[in-house]
Amino acid sequence: MDIELTKEDLEFEAEVKAFLEENAYKDGDAEKWRMGWFEKAREKGGWDVPKWPVKFGGPGWTPNQHYVWQRATASASTPWDLPFGLSMLAPVLMAYGSEEQQERFLPDIRARKVNWCQGYSEPGAGSDLASLKTKAELSEDGTYYTVNGQKIWTTMAHIADWIFCLTRTSSDGIKQEGITFLLFPMKQDGVEIKPIITLGGSHTVNSVFFTDVKVPVENRVGEEGKGWTYAKGLLEHERSGIAGISNSIVALEGLKEKARGVKRGNGSLMDVPSFKSKIAALEVDLMAVEYTELRSLATASAGAAPGPESSILKLKGTEIQQRIQKLTMEAGGQFSAAWAGFNSGPDFARGGTGGYMNSRYYTIYGGASEVQKDIITKKVLGIKSSK
Ligand SMILES: Cc1cc2nc3c(=O)[nH]c(=O)nc-3n(C[C@H](O)[C@H](O)[C@H](O)COP(=O)(O)OP(=O)(O)OC[C@H]3O[C@@H](n4cnc5c(N)ncnc54)[C@H](O)[C@@H]3O)c2cc1C
Questions:
Q1: Which residue lies with its CA nearest to atom 41 of ligand 1?
Q2: Where are the domains of the chain?
Q3: pLDDT tens digit string along 180-190?
Q4: Which of 30, 120, 215, 383 could be 184's S-S partner, Cβ–Cβ 3.0 to 4.6 Å?
Q5: Level-2 CATH architecture, domain 243-380
Q6: Cβ 154 under 6 angstroms from ligand 1
Q7: What is the pTM of this model?
Q8: Which CATH number applies to 114-225?
């Protein structure tokens, strides 16, 4: 596709850059700034929900405008945001939720008032998600479900207000049938959260246990037993989001700058051929995946949901993020092993090894790389299994 920016795109780019500069964090209450930032972005005409359709308050940007926004925000001071409500649940509610559910949940997601988490994976049901066992039983009078079971790897469950959760309402037929998509609050009796500390030493993921949690039927999205269809659509949105191409472009430029500051002989690390060739290979791969992302943006702006190409983005985008982390650790050398607060080398090196170790999960969450390769083989290349 043509990514030549038009005169209008360049004017838009200037407007975006001015907005980001004017609203960058300066000092004071960070949470107040965060909420104010989203409010101002909203006043610009849906800039707080760039990927939402116009019908739900989005800006209706062209692919080039999305491109400009992603590049500009990747290197600007923007507030933290979680993808679960905004980029994962919202599209499902827009497509399959009732009007009442859209009115009830979308405004708070948009205002960043309610944090959501994703209750999909279970011990024994990750790649093979349809094997999930968390049970939801409908009451005799048909007014509520009782949920029992366990989820695992639930990101940010410890700060989430609500969960969108895949549950099993029937074991008849194939395992993809009988899955039901429920929404319920996290802060209630019967929901227990236990932290999981990852290799890099941080707490982002959790185990979540449900004991007799009561969920009113009006919190069911779509039909009972049809949750698998809704869940799959959501995964495609999740995978496109994880690729993080714009951030990788900024991170790669940052890495080159860091490497230029690391002395080697009379020059810098960037003059060492073995390091330089790794950077060059990374840059070429990043450019290729950037073009794939642009094709995906073009599809999205034409109103279509992301398709199997989101698997290419997830696969290559996360590998690139890992390579950047690995090279950052290499550039920091022995100083990368230092943990926060203890460091005698260059500033950037601190936590380099921790960052590298954390990056191992990029190729697991949102669907492991092997699973993405399987999807690409079948849905993009059209190769059928011989089984
Ligand atoms: C940091 C992190 C955050 C996460 N956040 C969430 C979250 O918020 N909510 C949520 O629901 N889940 C979350 N997950 C779970 C994630 O989606 C699963 O870990 C992932 O789907 C893999 O499942 P698994 O861990 O059960 O591994 P398994 O499915 O057991 O896979 C183990 C290995 O076998 C390979 N494998 C499995 N099946 C096949 C196959 N058919 N062909 C070839 N190879 C295969 C896999 O690629 C992998 O290498 C998170 C995971 C991580 C690591």
A1: 371
A2: 7-81, 114-225, 243-380
A3: 999 999 999 99
A4: 215
A5: Up-down Bundle (1.20)
A6: yes
A7: 0.91
A8: 2.40.110.10
